[in-house]
Specification:
The structure is a single chain. The chain is built from 20 helices and ten strands. By secondary structure, it is an alpha/beta fold. The strands form two sheets. It has an eight-stranded parallel beta barrel, surrounded by six helices. β4 (about 80-85), α5 and β5 (about 115) form a beta-alpha-beta unit. α19 (about 425-435) crosses α20 (about 435-450). The two termini are about 40 Å apart. Mean pLDDT is about 90; it is low at about 450-464.
């Protein structure tokens, strides 16, 4: 009997988020949804991450309505989302009542699988979301934020998988957000986790560094159950490996993918002109399709590389790019080797940039980095050295409790603040996640309801 390997398709979320900053509207998705549903995917990732922000900031769409609309069309595949634990979709911690309500409404509106991760792999930041998924009848996938350092050993990650199992995970994901999981490490890590934990194991990587297909092959050989891929027009570069290519390769090696290659070709043909349109509009920057092996040297996600270069170019300082890049791993070491995933990737990158431009390390420190050092994002993987702490926050005492324990219930406050425009609990949660953008979006919706002309203007760019 053939060994089964299943696929999660990312084109509606991470694939397009990685390449076109999540600018794909629902109108581009709907005509092909039924074909995607019938193609044999285990799941379709279509929500979470930056979808909320992009929907209301750029696309004039209600993200909750997007979920409900797609749910009506999808009967076979699971619908999957990404959730940043106690951070939900944003960059700060929320109170437990907001996290529980958000998870409950996500599942109620159509999500089947909730992939939950914490940027620091601090399990205290996952427990509320995991419990909420279980209570709402959803499938909870706990994700390990994969990174490399002297601290982040195979033993550490296996221990984390065991801990996730104990706190209620239904499946485990190795989430390699930077594309730094090498084939040999993938084989050992997957083998060890499968031997230690009796749960389905999914592996997620990015094609940034040029080794992702080899990584997936070794992960599958070691016993991975599911891999994450993107249909070819939105694959490669900072996105995932191509769905069709991985399916053909694995089928040829004797694996049962469950995928219909004819329908995959139809899906690819559908998305190709959409990709071309974004390319012509300048939204799909050719650079994000580049292979960047420096990712393996500096352990920096591809999106973070391009963001640093963009910031320096705007200031006419692109010649100092390599200098900033070399500073990133030094800052990461100073801050206790946090995995470079949102929001820590932004914090480390910004601090490295400030260190280089100021000519003095930690002369300027963003408030978010100060809060991280204080312990307000959770426990750093490795204790931060006393001299670095003093440079950043002086003699302040550190937070040692679960950060969310310091946050009183927020849901009643959000309900009161947005009561003028919110019609549903989902509207309140939209406001909780992105207050200013939601206020603008819901206010414009109200004006349209009363027939007041509204001009939608795109005034800013968000990078997730």
């Amino acid at each position: 009997m053939k060994k089964k390997i299943r696929f999660m398709e990312t084109v509606l979320r991470d694939g397009q988020q990685s390449l076109i900053a999540t600018r794909m509207p629902l109108s581009d998705m709907l005509p092909i949804i039924k074909t995607m549903d019938e193609a044999g995917y285990h799941s379709i990732e279509m929500w979470g991450g930056a979808t909320f922000d992009s929907c209301i900031r750029y696309l004039n769409e209600d993200p909750w309505e997007r979920l409900r609309t797609i749910r009506k069309e999808v009967k076979n595949a699971k619908l999957q989302m990404l959730l940043r634990g106690q951070n939900l979709l944003g960059y700060k911690h929320y109170s437990d009542d907001v996290v529980s309500a958000f998870v409950e409404k996500s599942i109620e509106n159509g999500i089947d699988i909730v992939r939950i991760f914490d940027a620091l792999n601090d399990t205290r930041n996952l427990t509320t979301a995991i419990e909420a998924v279980k209570n709402a009848g959803g499938h909870c996938q706990a994700a390990i934020s994969y990174t490399t350092s002297a601290f982040h050993t195979i033993d550490y990650f296996v221990g984390l998988a065991k801990e996730y199992t104990q706190i209620g995970a239904d499946s485990i994901c190795v989430k390699d957000m930077a594309g730094v999981l090498t084939p040999d490490a993938a084989y050992e890590l997957v083998s060890r986790i499968k031997a230690a934990v009796d749960l389905p194991l999914e592996v997620h990587t990015h094609a940034t560094s040029g080794i992702s297909e080899m990584t997936y092959l070794k992960a599958v050989e070691a016993g991975a159950d599911i891999i994450d891929t993107a249909i070819s027009p939105f694959a490669g570069g900072t996105s995932q490996p191509a769905t069709e290519a991985m399916a053909i390769a694995l089928e040829g090696l004797g694996y049962d993918t469950g995928l219909d290659l004819t329908q995959l070709a139809e899906i690819a043909d559908y998305f190709a002109p959409i990709r071309d349109r974004f390319r012509e509009e300048g939204i799909l920057n050719p650079k994000v399709k580049d292979v960047e092996p420096k990712t393996l040297i500096y352990q920096v996600p591809g999106g973070m590389l391009s963001n640093l270069l963009s910031q320096l170019t705007e200031q006419g300082l692109q010649a100092r790019y390599d200098e900033v890049l070399a500073e990133v791993p030094k800052v990461r070491a100073d801050l206790g080797y946090p995995p470079l995933v949102t929001p820590l990737s932004q914090m480390v990158g910004t601090q490295a940039l400030m260190n280089v431009l100021a000519g003095e390390r930690y002369k300027m420190v963003p408030n978010e980095v100060k809060d991280y050092v204080r312990g307000l994002y959770g426990k750093s993987p490795v204790p931060i050295a006393a001299d670095i702490k003093e440079k950043i926050i002086g003699k302040e005492a550190l937070v040692t409790v679960r950060p969310a324990d310091l946050i009183p219930p927020q849901l009643p406050i959000f309900e009161a603040e947005i009561s003028k425009y919110a019609k549903t609990p989902e509207d309140v949660l939209l406001y909780a996640a992105f207050p200013q953008q939601a206020m603008d979006f819901l206010g414009k919706r109200e004006d349209r309801f009363y027939g007041i002309p509204v001009q939608i203007v795109d005034v800013s760019i968000a990078i997730d």
